[in-house]
Every structure is written in C-alpha cells, then in structure tokens.
Amino acid sequence: GGGDNGGGDNGGGNNGGGNNGGGNNGGGNNGGGNNGGNPPTPTEMPVVVPDPPTSSPSDVPSTSPTACFTTQTREEFLMEVLSDFDEALITDPSTAQGAAFVWLNETDIETTDCLYPADGIVQRYVLATLYYATDGANWVDSSGWLSSEDDCTWSGVECVDGIVAEVDLARNELSGELPDEELGALSQLETLSVWSNKITGEIPHSIFHEPFSTLDIESNFFVGSIPTEAFETPTLKKLRVSFNDLEGDAMPSNIGGLAMLEDLWIAGNKFAGSTPSEIGLLSNLDSMFIYGNMITGSIPSEIGLMSNLVGFQVQGNDLNGTFPSEFFDNKSMLKVLRVDDNDLSGPFPASLAHATALTDLRLANNAFTGKLTGYDNLTELEFFLVGNNSFTGPLEQDLSNLTALEFFDVRDNDFSGPIPSSLFDTGCISFIYLQGNNFNGSIPSTYGEASCVKDLYLSNNTLSGEVPPVGPDALPNLTEFLVDGNDLTGAMPDSICDLLTIEGGLLEDLWADCGTTPPEIECECCTTCYPLP
Q1: d(CA 102, CA 89)
Q2: Measured between alpha carbons, how far is 126 from 186 in angstroms, rounded to an integer?
Q3: Taking the alpha carbons of 485, 489, 491, 497 in that order, is the dihedral positive or negative?
Q4: 87, 105, 358, 384: least CB-packed within 10 angstroms?
Q5: CA angle at residue 210 from 201 to 300, to 5 degrees?
Q6: Which pLDDT tens digit goes with each residue over 446-466?
C-alpha cells in the first residue's frame, strides 16, 4: 500500500491543449492596403491542469511493510515471538522445546512471519514441542506432523478458524510427559484426548482455562493429583482420568461449581477422601465412575438431586453407612448401579423399584441386612448381583417381568423360603447362583425350561425331595450343576447324567451328596461327591 496509487500523471498530459484553430482563417486585409498587413497574433497557450489523484496520498502506508527478516535473523525473530516461553528450555536442543525450536528455525523454513502471524508460529511451536516430548517418531499415526502443511491438517488436530480446538492422540503410543506451559498457550483448546498411551508425569495445570471442556487421559501412567485449576474451570464437561497412579482428593467441595460437568471418571487410582454433599449440585452429571480407589465416608443423600445420572459406579472403595433412600429420587434414566465391595450396611431402600431403567444392579460384598424388595419391577434388568450380604426373607416370587435377566446371584446371604419357579422362565437367563442361603422346599420342576442356563448353583441350602428329571433336549448349555449340601434324596435322574455323555452335551461339573454310605442321593455319574473322602 506504500506505492504510487494514483499519484502519477493519470490525465495531466495535453488532452486537447494544442492550437486547434488558432491559425489565420481570414484574418488578412481583403480589400485594402497591404495584402499582408500586420502579422497575426497567436492565441494564448492553454494552461495545462493535471487531473487530481483519486485519493490524497498518505504519509503512512495502509499496512506496514513486512520485515521478512530484513532487520533481524530468523532465529532472532522466532525468539522474539516465543519470548513468553522458558528461554533456557528453548535454547537447549536436548529438550523437547529446544528440538521444536531447531525444527522451526532450520527445517520449517516456509513458516515465516511473511506467511503466518505470530500466534500461528506459537501454535506450530507448541504442537512440535508436544511431538518431541511424547516421542512422536514412534507414534502409530503421525501423519502430517512436522511437515510444512498447515498444522490444522496434522493427524489428531482439529481447528476452528485456524486455531487449535482439539488434540486427539488416543491409542497412539505416546510416551514421556506432556509439556505443561506449552499446552496452556493453546488459548482456544477445548479437548485433550490422549487415553490409552504410555504417558508419565503430572496432569498439565495450564490447560484448565475457558473454553476447555474435555480431558481424557485414561489408561496412562500419570502421577500426582488432579490440578486444583480443574475444579475452577466452569466450562469443564468431561473429566476422565481413570486407570493412572493419581492420588489425593479427587472431589473437593468446590466440585459443585462445575455446573456443566457430565462425566466424572476417576476410577482405578489411589484417591482418598470422601464424597462431598456438594456433588448433588452437578445436575448435568451423566456418569460417576469412582470405583477402585480408597474413598471413605457415606454416599450423600444429595445425589438424589441428580436427575440425569445414568451410571453410578463406586465399587471397590471403603464407603460405609447406609444407602440413602433419597438416591432413587429422579432416577428414571439410571442404568447402572454398582456399590459392591464396600462396607455399606443396613437395609436397602425399597425405592429401588423406581429405577425402572436399571440394567445392572450390584450390591455384593457389603453388610446389607433385611428384606430386599423392588427388584421385581425392574423390567430392563440384566445383571442382579447381591451376594455376600445378610439379606433375609424370601425372594420375590414373581420374576416373570424380568425378561432381560442374564445373571442372578444371591449367594451367601440369609434368604429363605422356596426358590421362585418363575426364575427359570425369565427369557434367556444364563447364570443362577443361589448357594449358601436357607432356601427350602423342592427344586422347581421348571428348572429344565431354562434353555440358556450355563451355571446352576443350589449348594448349601436346605432343599429337600428329589432332583426333578428334565425332558429331552433340555438344558443344552448347562456346564455346572451343583446340588450338594442339601437334604435331597433319591437318585440323580438319567436325563441329567446323560448331559455328561451325550454328543454335544456341555455338562462338566455335577456335584451332589453322594459321598456317604449309604449316599443321601444316589449318583454314580456325579463328578464330585460330598462329603469328600
């Protein structure tokens, strides 16, 4: 813009300024005296006025002329652009930062200030540092990285208007540590996804600023704690840090300020502390996976406020106290509830019946007591595991609504009464574990109708009568049938013994009380007779 844009002669020549009729057209004496007379007087020369320029010239050009290193070297220019970063690291070629600078200065020669603004150079430097810091040469997919192409086209990089918004390098054999300061310079970064790699070190602190929303670093080797800045980032939606070596308090009281949080995945670490009541403020929370840690305290009743909760998995911690009845308020979307392997006690609330979308319910290995009710209303239920507690009373007798049921495990409780015959007519149930209770009465004759059943454990109850025979082609998938430790009599039916020998039969283990003289139940085909000799 600093050239002559109209300041030359665009019309300042003689466009008709000559003598167009200035001669003697009859200016002599035609009738008197001298034929020549006085010489004619020439007309005045025209005054040439140049056309004005289309705009007045400016003392300052409209855009500054580009330096293109005319007054400084490329290295000096880049150091000036990257002046906010640690100079000691940049000037040390043995560091990832130094390697990135060497690449930018010596190899990435098309990336000059003539082509990219300073922000674009910073962006390339940050991504190059990430590449070198995580052994980019050995990534599974490094397509485009450290090429002269636009960094927004590099594999795993997504941009909005040329600015990096997402870095997704999951399952890509990254190793080493993430560069904290550099990643923080990606001012519009929303998503960092590097799960299932071999990354070590601490979680970067500097990435937690608006508009950052998603961190997924699951299945790596991160150490330290979750940065405090994470709980001060209102745009955070997904915090996925499971299966690392993290410790500390993963749920401080100010976690309630993360109003947009949808996923809280911190499983499989060494987190301690308790669950604050402020957790109930996370009204958008979809999944809470905190299992496999050392979290103590009780389950807050305020979780009942979470109407969008789909998955609640807290198994394998040190939780204690009773299970809050308020939990099942507003839980029409809840599909998975796992509190197994804790120290929870007391009765389990009958309001369980309200969670009609449940597919997976696991209460095993706690100290729950009393009668368990409401599960017969869970028509979507697939997995029901409540073993190793102190539940009492009979099972719900009408389970015919549980048509999706695959796994039914109530082992090692104090359940009593008859075994529901409807249990064997619930669709395609595969695993039934009733051992270690006080069930009485006879084995329901309908058990042969469970065509999908693989394991049927009835051991150590007070069942009586004879083992009912089954029809031809019954129990085609049965692999284990255990009836020892009961008061059964008679003989094992041939239709059961045949399952051990017939072509296509899958039965491998058949246990009964046939080890005494005379045997309580005659069973020459049993694979194990109790008591053992």
Answers
A1: 12
A2: 8
A3: negative
A4: 87
A5: 75
A6: 999 999 999 999 999 999 999
